[in-house]
Amino acid sequence: MTEQKINDCKARATELVARMTLAEAATQLAFDAIAIPRLDVPDYNWWNEALHGVARAGTATMFPQAIALAAAFDPELLGAVADAISTEARAKYNAASSHGDRGIYKGLTFWSPNVNIFRDPRWGRGHETYGEDPYLTSRLGVAFVKGLQGDGETLKVAACAKHFAVHSGPEKLRHEFNAVVSQKDLWETYLPAFEACVTEADVEAVMGAYNRTLDEPCCGSQLLLVDILRGKWQFDGHVVSDCWALVDFHAHHKITEDAEHSAALAIKAGCDLNCGSVYGSLMDAYEHGLITEDEIRLAAIRLMTTRFKLGALGDEGSEWDNVSFDVIDSPEHQSLNLTAARESIVLLKNDGLLPLNADDYKSIAVVGPNANSRAALMGNYHGTGAEYVTIAEGIQFLAGDTVRVRYAEGSKLAAPSSDFIARPNDLLAEALATVENSDLTVLVLGLDETIEGEEMMSGDFGNGFEGDKGDLNLPKPQLDLLNAVIATGKPIVVVLMAGSSIDLRAAENAPNVGGIINAWYPGALGGAAVADVLFGEVSPSGKLPVTFYNSADDLPAFTDYAMENRTYRYFTGDVLYPFGYGLTYGDVYAQGIDYELDITDGGVEFTVTVRNRGGATKDVLQVYARPDSPFAPTNPKLVAFKKVEFAPDSTQLVKFRLPDDARHVVNDAGERVRCDELTVTVGFGQGDARTAALYGHDALTLDMVFTEYTAPNGTGTPIYGVGFKKEMPWQE
After folding, report:
1. 242 part of the active site
2. Catalytic: which of 132, 185, 204, 242?
3. Which end of the chain is more exposed for a tag (fewer CB within 10 A), N or C?
4. What CATH number labels 3-313?
5. What is the pLDDT of residues 538-560, one digit of tens each?
6. What digits encode the pLDDT tens for the residues 431-441?
7. Range 331-557 has CATH code 3.40.50.970
């Protein structure tokens, strides 16, 4: 939107709210805002979801879950997905409005994306996020917000960055928990993605979290909402509470007396919209002198501004008003969905068994509780796809008529048996017979949203909180199934469908497990994408956006929000699969680097010579840096990445610019400090020993020294130089 258009929307909103009575203005601060007929203001429900497709509102394209989209390491792809989602959102809004339906999940304000940091693999909602890294989350969050909101004369839809801030479980404690963090961790880990969404993508809304951060409830925090969001970052949109989070102020956090005082605290902090019921007490708070008329009207102006930006108020409408119903789960969007699913799949192990050649097998066993599960395709916050392809169905299709595909469930996800009167592991015998009578087994294990998810989920897995995991193990029935199938000695490919780190050491170490694929929750067409990878129709190219640890015992307490020994940036132990890791059917590695310095701003552009000795594939060039500073993270941090397509047996040049952020650290006061010396690694994963051992190639390492001095022309203009502490070995 142009600045003039935005200012016009603000002016119109100010004029409209001035014509409302104060009581009318207060009604507009509820998520289910009522109509004001005399002012031609229709009713509007602000609550809608679009985490990986238009959710909870009937049929829509169901893309892979957010954590899967993150594994593609491709902001351009994520932007295209978000654009498709917002197109369908407009089509559904147009259709619902034409029938007078303005209810929940029918509006244009979408409470997505979730840009919290997946700091602990036990968190049940981690699969809603883009992983554990602030930089990756920032780049993907910006792409998603821009894709949703569009670049038209009106907002296509309004995006919302959530949950602000320092929020990542435990789910059972979220209504009373106080997240205590240092200023360094706050600014280095928990805030960057929100800052990027606000300052780079102009996200229209920010949602506060349930918990307290540094003793203040997030939806009423002076630090978060006033000082940082609207102060330091100059956020100009609206703030919404998480649903019924304001009740927690008095009911669980115990920092206010009652709903009146909770409403007053939130509105004074700049929480404009209440998902919940507490703002029903706004007028009482006003009558008792707890808040002012101007505070209520300011919140209403911000909300009416958003509605004008969407073209949902006034007579002008929007350029999106004629989006056709035909776009919903259209062939074009299904094609994009399949592409996204293919590119999100991560190949974790391959001893040469993959890709499969159907001509080599007379029979294939497809076994496991997620093998024929639609639920495992979806993740949470989902709608309904017009078409679903499970993994069993995808394999059946690609195997063709000459291969017998046998299916057995093998176990339930977590329940010990298929029926309360059945013996434990009552499905195991059929699975073993299926495996023993087949040439190859594809064993599909994992979780779904009933096991890892939001509070109020079943929570029947391990010893975890409701929605969270107690440990990183597969549920016991699946562990029994895995071990029994391995014991047959038959060749196996394990496919994991889950949204988080799982202990796969049994499969990794088994000699007859020739391949391991992480499919995440791959969306409605995910089974087709997995089959495409299994049979070599496409090369896998996804990378892990989270670390796969060996055990939760290696981690600090779940409730500890300090970053020490958490995520790839600070973890000091051994891991199963590192962040950024993922194999392909190619053999891509970096051979050498040239650089060019811009002496006027100190920027460095690198040209990497990349060799592929294998088949056609995509892969992700990754750049990590560790400044020479006591404030730097323990391990190098991701500072740049680029997804690249490679022809078979080819060499090409890939360019990237080292971002200025690569040289920055955050000190103990939360301040960004630039360093002159840093170590940079360039490759197709981290530069650590575990990645090199799994991948078979070392990353290239550069020890860089930046210098700054005054130009000799007397102007005082600084110019820059860069050197290297030692010769680059590929140039010797």
Report:
1. yes
2. 242
3. C
4. 3.20.20.300
5. 999 999 999 999 999 999 999 99
6. 999 999 999 99
7. no
